[in-house]
Amino acid sequence: MIVSATACRLAKRLNTIRANAFSSTVSTSNIFEKIAFLGTGKMSQAMLSPLITQNLQSPSSITAFDVSDVALSKAEEHFPGIRTATSIPDAISGSNLIVYAVKPQNVAKVHAEIRRAKLEGAANVRDDAIILSVVAGTPIQSYIDGAMVSKVARSMPNTPAQIGCGVTVWSCTETVDSIERKKIKRILDSFGKTVFVDDESFIDMSTSISGSGPAYIFLLMEAMIDAGVHMGFNRDTATTLVHHTLLGSTKFAMETGEHPGKTIIVVIAYKNFDMIFKPYIVLRQSAVLRNSVTSPAGTTASAIYELENGKFRTVIKDAIWACYRRSLEMGGKSSQVGPNRFSMPMQGSVEGGSDDGSSMGGKSNHHPVEPPMGEMGVPSSFGSKNN
């Protein structure tokens, strides 16, 4: 009995030592001293989850605010230990990273609250505070002018960030130093792939490809599943087939490294009038990946014919251009870019700011040369379509 009790005490002591050792190895070393999340929607949750589970930021160093008490209660429930605030000034007080995760139409209200807090001393708004925005369409200059904060990082994550498979394009002001950029990148890297761009205009472009892109894929997925059900598969089986087809095809494209439209250079010799042979270079597009699945006169070829005949490529490209233009409009910029659009002078931007990295402030538009008229078949709102 004595031996058994002693062994039990020793076992408990050993477990305590192990527990202490484990806790020391997983202790959180915060990326930022304090982070304020303004808005607790899906994107905030996609950011909060890896920050906490990967021990990048302790819950006690995170404060969240939301106009919805229900949303705030859910955030407390999902992420135990985080602090909540009843107002924006309370949330941002002492924070050196302020995450904007609100709807675009609410950005001006948040600007006003932060500006008031700075001017009236309603909160301890740090001089080194950085704004990290995940809001679509709102340019960097809007935050500088509206919130009176000089350090701003703008990002465009996408929905798969919620499962750690997102891709985020981001940019920042020159006032954000290299150490601060690395910290921001660590946060964005925690839920997927990141791409940094010096030119902010690429963020509006990425909104149309990676930001809204999952919706295009989901629509394609939906159409394929419905077709499978129409042919006779039950919905679960059709869903499994489509999910794994898209997943496998994407992985295959990534791992092979082949571009769907790979350029092959073909050199042809011809004879000129002086009887001298000179090389004549022809660039030919070869869809390597698609051709690997498509046999002449086969089933896939028949399907591709219908897609091409229905202007599948054109519809996809038109949709991407439409999304890009809308992103520009949301930021108060001219949307007269791309096929069948006339370049128009900028009329101004939201909050009285300028377009950081586009056509305002003496900088040239990212699309100074228009693509050929009629390429996409999108009529201009300022003229008729070129036939």
Q: How many helical elements?
A: 13
Task: Tell me the name of the CATH homologous superfamily of the domain at 28-198.
Answer: NAD(P)-binding Rossmann-like Domain
Distance from first to last alpha carbon:
98 Å
What percent of residues are in strands? 5-15%
Largest sheet: 8 strands, mixed
Cα gyration radius (Å):
27 Å
Q: What is the second-level CATH architecture of the domain at 28-198?
A: 3-Layer(aba) Sandwich
Which word captures the global form? elongated
- The total beta strand count reads 10
Q: Secondary-structure element order, as H and E?
A: HEHEHEHEHEHEEHEHHHEEHHH
Query: Structural class, judged by helices and strands?
Result: alpha/beta
Under the CATH scheme, which class of the domain at 28-198? Answer: Alpha Beta
Arrangement of strands in the largest sheet = 3-2-1-4-5-6-7-8
Q: Give the overall average pLDDT.
A: 81
Report low-confidence residues grouped into runs of 5 or more: 1-26, 344-387
Task: Write a structural description.
The protein is α/β, with parallel strands linked by helices. Among the domains are: 171 residues, 3-Layer(aba) Sandwich (Rossmann fold), CATH 3.40.50.720; 47 residues, no CATH class. The chain contains 13 helices and 10 strands. The strands form 2 sheets. The chain has an 8-stranded mixed sheet, sandwiched between helices. Helix 8 crosses helix 13 and helix 9 packs across helix 10. The protein is elongated and about 75 Å long. The N terminus and C terminus are likely disordered.
